[in-house]
Amino acid sequence: MQLGTMNLRARLSPIIKAARLRRALWVRAIDAAGLLRMAEGRARLWTRLVYRRELHQTAPYTWLNRYPALFDLAAELEPDARRILSFGCSTGEELVSLRGRFAHAEIVGAEINPRSRAIAQHRVAADAQTRVIPPESITGSFDLVFALSVLQRDPRGLKNEMEAKHLAARYPFARFDAGVRGLVACLRPGGFLIVANTLYRVEDSSVAVELEPIVGSPGMNRVQLTPRGRRLAAAAAARTVFRRI
């Protein structure tokens, strides 16, 4: 019976994948039904519905010290940072990781998913210098702005141009560009923007002229797209840390 189930899944997998690329209603209904079974899934569906025009990443998955090289580099570049923004802080592990490197900074986590935001608030409740807010409540300027695995959608492989076109339709460059512009607007001159796993290059954004890539910062370790939604050539590697000029 188990072997038969595995064979059935193997046969159905390419059919479902092709239907997903076509945005077929039946497979979207199946995906939504799967999410409705879990509290986390229901929160993701609600977030997609309410914030569908502003939404970036939809998955809340994260863990402590997820990007140690980027955290450590930020601490070297701005050791005395007074205000730090974690954009898309999910359930708050990133806030705890940053506190371990910036003992005296005010740390603000911005999270659009209400369930993830509540978990993050509970996680940092004992830290008077850390708070968690919805993105629309961000105010003031920051010395460091982090957007780690936020300015993207799950690529589901991105093995060919069809998949790239599908993903670009779900998460267009214009939405990414608006997100980067908003983050740069929160950054004080001389402050640093730190990104990871972006679907498009920050260097291609409309505010790239205001940013100086930090030589030696880690490269973007993922498949990216051009503003027109084509797979980016591997030679056009993107940076992850930028200073606002």
- Give the rounded overall mean pLDDT: 87
The CATH superfamily of the largest domain bears the name Vaccinia Virus protein VP39
Examine the secondary-structure arrangement and name the CATH architecture of the largest domain: 3-Layer(aba) Sandwich
What's the CATH topology name of the largest domain? Answer: Rossmann fold
Outline the structure in words.
The chain has 245 residues and is α/β, with parallel strands linked by helices. It has 2 domains: 36 residues, no CATH class; 177 residues, Vaccinia Virus protein VP39 (Rossmann fold), CATH 3.40.50.150. Helix content is 38%, strand content 16%. It contains 8 helices and 7 strands. The protein has a 7-stranded mixed beta sheet with strand order 3-2-1-4-5-7-6. Strand 2, helix 6 and strand 3 form a beta-alpha-beta unit. Helix 2 packs across helix 3. It is globular and about 55 Å long. The model has no long low-confidence stretch (mean pLDDT 87).
Summary of the model, kept short:
The chain is α/β, with parallel strands linked by helices.
